[in-house]
Amino acid sequence: MKKQKSIPEPITNRFDLLSEEIVFIILDFLNDNPFDKKSLSLVCKSFYAIESRHRKSLKPLRSEHLTKVLNRYPYVSNIDLSLCPIITDTSLGVISSNCKQKLRSITFSRSKFFSHLGLSDLVMNCRNLIEIDLSNATELKDLAAATIAEAKNLEKLWLVRCKSITDIGIGCIAVGCKKLRLLNLKWCLGVGDLGVGLIAVKCKDIRSLDLSYLPITNKSLSQILELQYLEDLVVEGCFGIDDDSLAAIKPGCKSLETLDMSSCQNISHLGLSSLTNAARCLRQLILSYGSRVDLALVNSLQKLSKLQYIKLDGCQVTCSGLEAIGKWCISLTELSLSKCVGVTDEGLSSIVTKHKDLKKLDVTCCRKISHVSLARITNSCTSLVSLKMESCSLILAEAFVLIGQRCPLLEELDLTDNEIDDEGLKSISRCSRLSSLKLGICLNITDEGLIHIGMCCSKLKELDLYRSAGITDSSIMAIARGCSGLEMINIAYCTSITDRSLMTLSQCLKLNTLESRGCPLITSFGLAAIAVECKQLSKLDIKKCRNIGDGGMIPLAHFSQNLKQINVSYTSVTDVGLLSLASISCLQSMTVLHVEGLTPSGLAAALLACGGLTKVKLQAWFKSLLSQPLIEHLEARGCNFQWRDKIFQAELDPKCWKLQLADRE
Amino acid sequence: MDPEERLCADTWTNSSSCCESISGPPSNQSFIDFKQKWENSSFLDYGIRIEQQFPYFTQPLEAQNSLACNVNKQKQMSDSQESNKTQDWDPSATLNNLSFLEKKIHQLQDMVHLIVGRSGGQVTGRPDELLVQQQQLITADLTSIIVQLISTAGSLLPSVNHNTLCSESPISQLGQFGKFANQSAGMSGNVVLPQKNNVEIQSDLTGFLGSEQNCNVEDHEMKSEDDADEGENLPPGSYEILQLEKEEILAPHTHFCTICGKGFKRDANLRMHMRGHGDEYKTPAALAKPNKECNTSEPILIKRYSCPFIGCKRNKDHKKFQPLKTILCVKNHYKRTHCDKNYTCSRCNTKKFSVLADLKTHEKHCGRDKWLCSCGTTFSRKDKLFGHIALFQGHTPAIPLEECKRSAGPSDLGQCSEATNKIEQLEFNYKSDAALGQNVMDLDGSGGYPTGYFSPLGFDTSSIGGFQEFPRPPFEDSESSFSFLLSGSCDYPSKNGRYIGSNNLE
User: Fold this and answer.
1) pLDDT for B141-159, tens place per residue?
2) Strands A589-592 and A360-362
3) Is A145 among the domain residues?
4) Last residue of a domain, one of A49, A67, A93
5) Does pTM surpass 0.80?
6) Distance (Å, rounded) from C-alpha A362 to C-alpha A149?
7) Which of A166, A274, A298, A157 is nearest to A218 (CA)?
8) Do A194 and B403 touch (CB under 8 A)?
9) Fewer CB under 10 Å: which end of chain A, C or N?
10) Rounded to whole angstroms, how far apart are CA atoms A54 and A24?
11) C-alpha to C-alpha distance for A469 and A492, rounded to whole angstroms
């Protein structure tokens, strides 16, 4: 007996020697994988206790275990409930009675089934609440808003898509939460001028305000713009705002730095010029999908002496307008002309030759620009960090060499659907900082070019090779070896890719997203290798990988405990494989279309077993085969069904697919 | 005084202008008195003429041609009186009276001439005792002339009542009259009606022409003063101010007979009543709506009203007096501001009103669109509530009780149970309706067996389902929802007329 007692003591003591501070510091670094902290806490009792005291934020998977979890972690101050589809008033009661004054932030943005009573419980007990995210609580009414108003210390509040809340509720919040700094009312369609006006009157500390798609007019906007500290204002899609309202703005909203007026179609250059008179300190201006960008509009923005960022996505632009931007005295650092109609070589050239400090440029789908533009861009904007030029199909293959030659600082490059070839890739491999590279639908590239990328761009995190059919295993192996930090890869419809690629990709331990649709050569073995090694995997799309079956699912179920989203359509998975996925506790979304080996009862069992599902996409005919009470039960559990009636589609030849696309345009 | 702007005072204008032409050179006090007394007498003359609808428009010209001597004036008067002979009075007696008056006036005229001649040297000197005596003498004479003239004229008037009125008032007031007229000429508006103002107001109510028949000295006096005042948009004094007594304001009737004092709700009724007071009220002109004729013949005097409550802003003695436009305004104002609020809203049991119409207006909106503040104040409009909240610290919008109740239970279940409650209520209503219908049928004695009628009414769920399609009022308290159900159900049995009728009982 004595021996037994004396022997284990020194072993435990060894860990106990580490002070709490040191363990805390170790824990601070364990953020990448949630399981790391779990492992550490299992080392010994003291570590367990220290880890419990260390944890400040919690993202529980099931609301059922809230009591236990909160008992274990007494110092939690931030709770994220977005993985719990069901949060009842009882769960809120548990949270409020356990956390009391310690709770500072809580998120319900994906949860349902709670009412104002639970909120009232929470707000009354947790007096120090600073942040509440109640987005998507479409059921909540003014009464709930009135209870939130009791949280007097609230500084940040998200009410996105709370459609049932009206002016009255917002009025309560405005009066109650005087310390609000951030308020997001996007899509709160019941809120109008009166509620927003009261916010402007009562909440003087507001820094950030999102009023997108609200039926507000000039009246409340002028009140909002008088807020002393307002820095960030979003009025996207507010159709009630027009030139007249902007004309009424009193000069002196000095604090406003960011303004988003996307989709405000009733604002012309007249309104903008009065705006620029008032808000001289604007740094960022977003005018996407607005009125035509012509000379008058551009001239109206001339007075913004601090402007750095302008986004004109989806606007119709004229050449004179772009040239006028080129004549501005200021130097832009970010410009977005994505999907602008009317961007020509002349216009774009005049901008880039003047604004040489551009760091980010987006010319997505500016289909009229040619290699002339690219030459100008690369020539003058040598400090570019981000260049997005999807579908600039007029640019010749040879021109892409310039990117690598002249823009060595590039970190983000989108060349989707371009004519770039291996020479271009080889040149781009000089951009050693590259972290995101999109080469989707680049049919001219082969392994030769991509191997250079793999060898040189060691910082690559994101690689998109969607339908770049020239790619085979060798380049993927080069990437996997060279870019160990890879987090996301898309090899969809790269039909020659086999398990060898996946096996080497399994070396990229940070991989969290793998999309390998339509790779018929991939089998369960390859997937198993990924599952075993890549513990971070959270999104997996193996649609149309016909050779993946239950053999791939079982290791996945066993090892990939972080998997949230999976698409197993058109695979050879059967009941067994699907049912095994139930062991992944955080699985939320599942798409199961045209899986021939699946029976209704197997599906039912799998759905019942996966307790955390919030979204399931199924073949429509399953609806009649699954029992109605089962569906109701699952829906009550927070699962949202999407019934699809797609017909089975045979895979097309990639070249042919591109031709089809061209015909449609 | 601008004679041109005088309203309905042609004769008076004539007389006064002729008087002026006489009294122009000699600025003797007695003459002024004389003139004023003549003016007074001519009022009566005028009153008579209006009543007779006499075409006197040509006479001003005559009068101006035959300038300015008392005799002429007298003649004119007699002319006008003679032309009144359409009525059945004794012309010879009148003629005697007039000639007597003429002699009297001549005597008086001679006497005054004498005085003028004597005092010619000492016009500027202080009035000696003799002069004062003479003045008193002349005044006494004039008074007697006037009394006689009035009695002569009074015999022409239809009602005894009026006759006495006319003969009394000048005598009693004659002593002060000159002074009064002098003062009032300089006054700019606020007229204190000496007496009998109630009668005048009533006569005003009955209409302009109608009132002419009953006009007396005071009435004309007031008008003349109003004439003297400045023009339009109601600077003080540009209008005639009338003030009713409290009792009259609160009386249920607004139109009073000036002869017997009987009250009526409608002027038309009063005019019908007036027929009983004499044939002259039976003429189409007297029976017609008074206002129209008035408009065509002469511009109407603007009348404004004063509140009898001393200290009220609507009282004419108030510094910033704001007159009330109509009698109705007076009534409503007085009731709203100076009376108890006796009508209580049966819905909210809090709001009280003193004017029945206000209660009715309120009841239309009571309970609907109630915008509540945490302080308990209610608003009919949301923007008013938000304005209130923006203004006061700590006030916050209150959630209507309805919503609190609705979301009390777990959301889904709560709604379900509510729905079932509704259905139960609905069924109950159907039954009660059926019972009502049955009663009606029994009363009708149609003898038909009611169940046959009511079987298609549907206690079944399908009709209940259809029920949801009826427009729902946004606000429902227990009462209104009940009535809603009743009224909703009446659309169902379209083939059953009697049944529908029974629903009207609600």
Assistant:
1) 888 888 777 777 766 655 4
2) unpaired
3) yes
4) A49
5) no
6) 42
7) A274
8) no
9) N
10) 6
11) 9
Q: Do B411 and A198 touch (CB under 8 A)?
A: no
Per the domain annotation, does A469 fall within a domain? no
| Residue A600 tokens, joined | 């209704």
State the DSSP code for B238.
Answer: S
A541 and A564 Cβ atoms separated by less than 8 Å: no
A136 and A34 within one domain: no
One-letter amino acid identity for B87? Q
What range does the domain containing A143 cover? 130-282
A166 and A265 housed in the same domain? yes
Which of A117, A140, A172, A175 is most worth mutating to test chain B (most B CB atoms within 10 A of its CB)? A175
The domain boundary residue, chosen from A221, A255, A282: A282
Whether residues A140 and A268 share a domain: the answer is yes
Question: Within this chain, do residues A27 and A148 fall inside the same structural domain, yes or no?
Answer: no
Q: What angle do CA A189, A195, A200 make, to 5 degrees?
A: 125
B403 reaches A (C-beta below 8 A): yes
Lowest mean pLDDT among A161-170, A569-578, B123-132, B237-246: B123-132
Cα B435 to Cα B377, B431, B494: the distances in Å are 43, 6, 17
Whether B414 has its CB under 8 Å from any CB of chain A: the answer is no
Q: Give the other-Cβ count within 10 Å of A33's Cβ.
A: 15
Task: Answer whether A142 sits within 8 Å of B399, measured CB to CB.
Answer: yes
Residues A169 and A265 placed together within one structural domain of the fold: yes
Dig out the tokens for A557 from the structure: 């179920």
Say yes or no: A32 and A147 in one domain.
no
| Whether residue A23 sits in one domain with residue A162 | no
Number of residues that make up chain A: 665
Ramachandran area for residue A395 (φ above 0: left; ψ -120 to 50: alpha; else beta): beta
Query: Which residue shows structure tokens 């009611």?
Result: B450
Residues B381-435: tens digit of each pLDDT: 888 889 999 988 888 888 876 666 555 444 333 333 333 333 333 333 433 343 3
Residue A39 has a CB neighbour count (10 Å cut-off) of 12
What the block records as the tokens of A76 is 């939690």
Share of chain A above pLDDT 70, in %: 95
Residue A36 lies in a domain: yes
The share of chain B scoring above pLDDT 70, in percent, equals 38
Residue A199's CATH number: 3.80.10.10
* Count of structural domains, chain A: 2
Q: What is the pLDDT of residue B237?
A: 64
SS3 content of chain A, % helix, strand, coil (to 5): 40, 10, 50
A143, A175, A198 member nearest B404 (Cβ):
A143
pLDDT tens digits for A473-495? 999 999 999 999 999 999 999 99
The closest of A204, A190, A142 to B397, measured between CA atoms, is: A142
Name, in order, each residue with C-beta under 8 angstroms of B160's C-beta and a sequence gap of 6 or more: none
Closest CA–CA distance from residue A603 to any residue of chain B (Å):
28
Asked if residue A269 is part of any domain, the answer here is yes
Please give the Cα distance from A164 to A186 (Å, whole number): 13
Q: Is the pLDDT of residue A538 over 60?
A: yes
Stretch (H or E) spanning B200: helix B197-206
Coil, helix or strand at residue B300: coil
> Which amino acid would we find at residue A338?
S
Q: pLDDT grade, residue A355 (50/70/90)?
A: very high
Which amino acid, residue B455? S
Residue of A nearest to B411 (CA): A115
Quote the pLDDT of residue B291: 58
* H runs (alpha helix) in B207-299: 208-213, 217-228, 246-250, 267-274, 284-287, 290-297
**pLDDT tens column, A123-182:** 999 999 999 999 998 888 899 999 999 999 999 999 999 999 999 999 999 999 999 999
Looking at the complex, report in whole angstroms how far the Cα of residue A171 sits from the nearest Cα belonging to chain B: 6
Residues A40 and A164 in one domain: no
Q: Residue A100 and residue A96: Cα distance in Å, rounded? A: 5
As given in the structure block, the two tokens for residue B224 are 């003349």
